[in-house]
Write a structure and sequence with these properties.
The strands form two sheets. This protein has a five-stranded parallel beta sheet with strand order 5-4-1-6-7, sandwiched between helices. The chain has a two-stranded antiparallel ribbon with strand order 2-3. Helix 3 packs across helix 4. The chain has nine helices and seven strands, in the order ββααααβαβαβααββα.
């Protein structure tokens, strides 16, 4: 059956959180600027969709499990993740966490705009389906793409977290299409691949740095005869 709607993950799919000029004066425990390896390790802890690499107490485990449903739990969980990732001071932990929550700090993949425009030209509606505890709509508005997104299905707003089929079914309901006619695109086979249980197709994209993935999304559209 022809694809009538496309669902996209946010982090590692349409946008990626990457170091910018604000990292230049961030230092590690040794007082030296964070090098690329340290930056990559911290960012991996901040953005990996499953797993965390941290050891939590009982309260911390609850916060981690509820992080994408409750902004307060998200804050508790990620401040501890950053502490255990080796960020040396509370002030720097708070600074990195605030930066993570700024939708304008996220970098779009080079082909994100082209993909959204290609689908819009074919009257194929798009939903962004994300496990997240803050509003990412400004990231799209800042690039002039807000009109290209028919629905934002954010876990903290709808009360369901991928891979729970309910979050995908909510997106389908908002778009008014059947699951058999929808394709989910994301960087996690575990989380985004939950769309299969809801009846959707699924395509996996590699969450590479934006400089290293110029046409990953366009390639998926081409494979599905959408571009």
């Amino acid at each position: 059956m022809a694809i009538e709607a496309v669902l996209f993950d946010f982090s590692g799919t349409l946008f990626r959180l990457e170091p910018d000029e604000t990292w230049a004066d961030m230092v590690g425990a040794d007082g030296e600027p964070l090098d690329r390896v340290q930056q990559a390790a911290i960012l991996d802890r901040m953005t990996t969709p499953v797993g965390h690499g941290a050891q939590f107490d009982a309260a911390g485990r609850i916060a981690w499990q509820q992080r994408d449903l409750d902004p307060a739990m998200h804050r508790t969980a990620y401040l501890e993740v950053l502490r255990q990732a080796g960020v040396p001071t509370r002030a720097l932990i708070e600074r990195l966490y605030a930066w993570m929550l700024d939708p304008l700090a996220w970098t779009p993949y080079p082909d994100t705009g082209a993909v959204l425009k290609t689908l819009a030209a074919q009257d194929i509606p798009v939903a962004v389906v994300s496990n997240i505890a803050f509003d990412i709509r400004p990231a799209f508005a800042a690039n002039g793409w807000d009109r290209l997104i028919a629905a934002h299905i954010l876990s903290f707003e709808v009360g369901a977290v991928k891979p729970d089929p309910r979050i995908f079914l909510t997106a389908l309901d908002r778009l008014g299409v059947g699951a058999e006619s929808a394709l989910m695109v994301g960087d996690s086979a575990e989380a985004d691949g939950g769309a299969v249980a809801a009846g959707c197709g699924f395509a996996l994209v590699d969450p590479l740095p934006t400089a290293d993935r110029a046409e990953g999304l366009l390639d998926i559209l081409r494979r599905h005869e959408l571009a």
